[in-house]
Structures are given as C-alpha cells and as structure tokens.
Amino acid sequence: MLEPLEGGFNMKKASILISAVLFVAAMGIPAAGSAPTSEYIEEPVMATVQGNSIQAISSVYFPSPQVYGVLMSQEMEFEELKALIKEEKPLLYRIIECESGWRNVCNAQGCGRGMGLAQITPETWDYVAAKISIGDEPMNELDNLKVALWPFNNEGIQHWGYPPDDARGYVNGERWGTWDCWGNY
Fold it and tell me: Nearest Cα to 118, choosing from 70, 72, 152, 74?
C-alpha cells in the first residue's frame, strides 16, 4: 500500500509535473546534462513528394540557399565567401583552385582565354551576363564567382574541361581546361 506524501497529495503540482514530462518526451528533448545524439538531429532532405511526383530540393550543382543568397547580395567579405564555397560546394572550390589558385588573374595565354578567379572566358561572360544581372568587370571577384556559379548550377562542369577520352576536351588537337586537376576530385 502506498503511503501519502508528506504534506498531502497536490493534484495541481502532479498534473504540471506529468505535463512537463510528457512534453519533454513528445519533443524528443534529451535529459538535462546529456549530449545531443544523432537521434535528435534531422537528416537533410533531398526531395519532397508532391502528389505523385518527387521534387528535388536542390541539384548536385546548385549552391545552398546561404551560398546563393550571399553571392547575390554581396553581404559577405571575400575570404568568408571563399570558406563558405569550400564547405558547401567543394567541387567548385577545387575547380577555382585549379584554374587560378584563387588568384584574380588573367590566363597565362591572355585574358581572352580566361579571366579572374574562375577563369571565365569573354564568351562565357557575355553568355551568362545575358541571363543574370551582372556588372561588366570580370576581374571583380564577386561578379566572377556569380558568373561561374550560373553555368556550374545550370549546365554542369563542362565550362572548365572534359575527361581525356572526350573529343570536346581538345581544340586543334590541344587539350584545354583543368579537368586533369579536378576531374577525379
């Protein structure tokens, strides 16, 4: 037989305590003092189901909303943006590393063969500038990254080279692009 609590049973305190315990259990909140575990961390979602269709949340090449938003608003310092791209879009980071070493320079064969961080050709600059709002200075680091992201997001990596067995990776018999540097990344 249970003995009554000292001072009697308080229904109000008991119901508050039970409510709190049920709330904590329902929310999946770990007990005080314990470290969070993977059971409390949501896995990233790559797609949603809408009706009878699956809709991708993001493509392989599309940067996270944080990266894209930062680039379009130019709210971040260059070094912070570079670190964000390294974390969020490691292949693009590697391509730029191979193209220019993250230096804002013209190609060794002249600016007509590539300009700025991502080594954007004048033809690619004009092609992308017709699609997005961009300045007219390819050597502006942030504008160069914006122009690099558009083909990377929408057309893939072919603007920076092709595998050795692909004929498109050759012009007049000479290999072009930096695929050999980043292609197996």
Answer: 152
Q: What is the pLDDT of residues 114-144, one digit of tens each?
A: 999 999 999 999 999 898 888 788 999 988 9
Is residue 80 in some structural domain? yes
State how far the alpha carbon of 129 is from the alpha carbons of 13, 134, 138, in Å. 67, 6, 10
Closest CA to 20 of 12, 154, 158, 41: 12
Phi (first) and psi of residue 175, to 5 degrees: -70, 140
Contacts of 185 (CB under 8 A, 6+ apart): 90, 91, 94
More confident residue, 72 or 182: 182
Radius of gyration of the chain (CA): 27
Integer distance in angstroms from the first to the last C-alpha of the chain? 70
Enter the pTM of the model: 0.59
Cβ–Cβ contacts within 10 Å for residue 16, how many?
A: 11
Rounded (10°) CA dihedral 91, 97, 100, 104: 90
Residue 161 lies in a domain: yes
The single-letter DSSP state of residue 170 is: E
Range of the domain at 82: 65-182
Number of domains in the chain: 1
Tokens 């070094």 belong to 79
